[in-house]
């Protein structure tokens, strides 16, 4: 198995995904593409070139990493096949699309083409207010579905679902194909259960996270924990606790 050299920050940012995948049966290769951080100048240059401002969550994300790409391959019935993909476009890859939601023209920043299974885009709740954007998913019929209240929280959901094929469909109510369901039963049965009727458990998990001050995924907190671990050994327990809270995010 390929064992990527994962630095502490990338490990924290991706909630230990690479290390987790290494332990899963059948996984034979993991390709991780850590990216350099986008500078303030690069973000401003993108905004000026595209005449669009990034919202606060996007700015925070790209300030920490200019996109993320993790893909993993399995050996199943003597056939090697690509399976999971955790991906957010780099700034250079982000495209602008004009789509209609409920009959209203809407501007989307496309963050992932999902390899032909749909598209993920950021849209501003109020087109005149760019302080907060939400994440939506376009299925293959072209319909858009709300997925997450911010890019950071979408990223956590993607990691929790291991980037398995069609994982966004679980959150739309449409469900996944039989083939995709097979992979969820093998690698993420809890996520499949929650999507298929375990909402009461999901709500309890979310309430637990809120009680522990785990309201979503604070990217700045990830950086603080990494800095703490780099300088002292006291950050170990805090890091473990924070990742646990992130894993409870609905």
Explained architecture:
With 250 residues, this protein is α+β, with helices and mostly antiparallel strands. The chain contains 10 helices and 8 strands. The protein has helices at residues 8-13, 17-22, 40-50, 56-64, 151-160, 178-187, 189-195, 199-211, 219-231, 235-247; strands at 27-33, 68-76, 79-88, 95-101, 104-112, 119-126, 129-138, 144-148. The strands form 2 sheets. It has a 5-stranded antiparallel sheet with strand order 4-5-6-7-8. Strand 7 and strand 8 form a beta hairpin. The two termini are 31 Å apart. The relative contact order is 0.11. Residues 212-217 and 232-250 have low confidence and may be disordered.
Order of helices and strands: HHEHHEEEEEEEHHHHHH
Q: Count of DSSP E strands?
A: 8
Mean pLDDT: 81
Q: Work out the radius of gyration.
A: 18 Å
Overall shape: it is globular
Distance between the first and last residues' Cα: 31 Å
| Uncertain residue segments | 212-217, 232-250
Task: Order the strands across the largest sheet as they lie in space.
Answer: 4-5-6-7-8
- The helix content, as a percent range, equals 25-40%
Number of helices: 10
Find the structural class using helix and strand composition. Answer: alpha+beta
Strand content: 25-35%
Largest sheet: 5 strands, antiparallel
């Amino acid at each position: 198995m390929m064992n990527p050299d994962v630095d502490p920050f990338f490990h924290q940012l991706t909630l230990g995904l690479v290390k987790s995948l290494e332990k899963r049966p059948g996984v034979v290769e993991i390709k991780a593409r850590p990216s350099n951080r986008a500078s303030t100048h690069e973000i401003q240059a993108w905004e000026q070139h595209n005449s669009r401002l990034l919202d606060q969550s996007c700015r925070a994300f790209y300030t920490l990493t200019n996109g993320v790409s993790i893909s993993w391959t399995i050996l199943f019935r003597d056939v090697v096949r690509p399976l999971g993909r955790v991906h957010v476009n780099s700034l250079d890859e982000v495209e602008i699309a004009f789509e209609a939601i409920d009959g209203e023209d809407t501007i989307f920043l496309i963050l992932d083409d999902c390899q032909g299974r749909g598209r993920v885009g950021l849209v501003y709740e109020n087109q005149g207010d760019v302080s907060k954007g939400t994440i939506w998913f376009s299925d293959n019929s072209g319909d858009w579905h709300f997925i997450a209240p911010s890019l950071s929280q979408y990223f956590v959901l993607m990691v929790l679902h291991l980037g398995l094929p069609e994982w966004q469909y679980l959150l739309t109510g449409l469900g996944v194909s039989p083939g995709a369901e097979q992979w969820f039963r093998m690698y993420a049965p809890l996520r499949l259960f929650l999507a298929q009727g375990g909402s009461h458990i999901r709500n309890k998990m979310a309430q637990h996270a809120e009680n522990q001050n785990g309201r979503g995924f604070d990217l700045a907190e990830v950086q603080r924990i990494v800095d703490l671990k780099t300088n002292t050994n006291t950050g170990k327990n805090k890091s473990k606790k924070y990742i646990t809270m992130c894993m409870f995010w609905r």
